[in-house]
Design a protein that fits this description.
elongated; alpha+beta; 73 residues; 4 strands; four-stranded antiparallel sheet
Amino acid sequence: MIKPSEILESITHLGYEIKSLRHANTGLVLYKFPSKMHNWEDCWTIDLETAKTGVSKYMQHMKKIKENLNKIL
């Protein structure tokens, strides 16, 4: 019988929700974060610090976009 992955409590970093789960086959905890390398699409990592760094970069990116929009408007 295949055991499903376990959804764990999310972690909030800089106001962004990092979702986490325990992978059913490996038992590893995975963290979902926006990845600059993948054009800000969500990716999974086993390293929480990598996820937090990705979130920090994403938040900086979004701040720059908002600042540029404010200049236009």
